Description:
Layout: E1 8-13, E2 24-29, E3 37-47, H1 49-55, E4 72-80, E5 92-96, E6 105-109, E7 113-115, H2 122-126, H3 129-142, E8 150-154, H4 159-170, E9 174-179, H5 182-191, E10 195-198, H6 204-211, E11 217-222, H7 228-235, E12 236-244, H8 257-263, E13 266-269, H9 277-290, H10 292-296, E14 304-309, H11 313-322, E15 328-332
Parallel strand pairs: 8-9, 8-11, 9-10, 11-12, 12-13, 14-15
Antiparallel strand pairs: 1-2, 3-4, 3-6, 3-15, 4-5, 5-7
Protein name: Zinc-binding dehydrogenase
Organism: Pontixanthobacter aquaemixtae
Keywords: NADP, Oxidoreductase
Amino acid sequence: MTGTIPETMQAAGFDEPGGPQVLRLETLPVPSPAKDEVLIRVAYAGVNRPDVIQRMGHYPPPAGASPIPGLEIAGEIVACGAELSQDTVGQNVCALVTGGGYSEYCVAKMAHCLPVPDGLPLAQAAALPETLFTVWHNVFERGWASEGETLLVHGGTSGIGTMAIKLGKLFGLTVIVTCGDDAKCEAATKIGADHAINYKTADFVEEVKCITGGAGVELVLDMVSGDYVPRNLACLGEDGRHVTIAVLGGMKAELNMAQIMARRLTLTGSTLRARPDEFKALLCDEIYQIAWPHVEDGSLRPEMDQIFPLAQAAAAHAHMEDGGHIGKIVLEMDHS
């Protein structure tokens, strides 16, 4: 390790699962990077739904990962592992990590880092990796989305939802979203959604049929699961694809397999956190080649909601659970 790196750091963790109030600051040793890792002096860390689920005790970190929450960070590389060039030190990057983001220093695989271009604030950079990796993999790789197709996304003003809107529009998709109130529907439309459905006042299945002239959509990005799945399948056209990335509404669904066969539907899904490092490196490289130029030229930016200091991580989680946020919530490190 090089430079003036302290021995300890502040991090936001918890002893026992529970509500937002269990999060508190603690002093921990600064981690050392492995041979293929960099140590990042974190400026900002993104807050994501998996962090909340981990804090509640339902999403333990993979073996070997930090127990500290936080799956995405942005900041300056201050040290690097033995396999890496010292030229990386001093670079500003954002990174996808398996944990440890809610801290002043965090290690990341160099192959999971993306360079922060001039003009991209570090707070926005920290809000990109988790949703960008997730949406890119599930919409374009698993979901085979292609220009001219129509995508249905639930939770249109969430971090995932807003990223799906922005990426979808950049790559030629028509995007339909559902939201829980008219104000969120209006916000989603301003962000770029072609159609926004208030699922509390309208049947989204009927609305999708109306919007698509009865043809249905080619792809559904599903974060709800449970009893939404048969309704989602009713929104799909023939040869449609259904991709599940979360089970916020329940893990079990009742399906009509004859209908799936007759309409040649494809059901798939994924989680990202526990995937092998090699897979994430390939995904990072593909994003860098295809999507990152839109970040570099300013045409892709995360939808930002609110920035909280690290010491207020509990308030950030409460804000996410309240459901009123539009876009991304991030934590700011103090380093004072």
